[in-house]
Amino acid sequence: MEEITIKNYQELAMCTRLPSDKNWEYCYCLIASEIYEAFGKWGKQFRDNKLYKDALKDKLGDVFGGIALACELDGEKFENLWYRSYKQYFLLIEAITPHKFSKGGLILNKLSALSFAKTFAEECGIDPLDCLKRNIAKLANRQAEYKRRNNRSGKRNYYGKRE
Hints:
single chain
């Protein structure tokens, strides 16, 4: 596998995305849910007296993957956003009921979300770059397994094409 860097992360992350992933509604929900899941993983330390760093890296990797998708949808470079990030100690995310959910009403500041995720990782003693690496490895493994499973049965591959 190619070395994962800040520069190539967005391209590698987009190679693992389904075409149907590439829409704002999904992207917003993905980022919001993964941030809350990361918070939940962090919170388990209060119950179990143990920080589950690998699980937290996976969830934060999913947050970064969602932000890379948001950059792709906006025609921006994840790398540029990464280097503009700053210490962000809180993040406001709107949770919207299905009847009030609309693309026009979604507010997501990619820079704030990225800055928050990086700060969160660092405060947990995690190198944010490790989260990116784990995210690509996880998604590449999932994609390969999906292809293997469906090629044996003659079904469509991960991208919906017959092989």
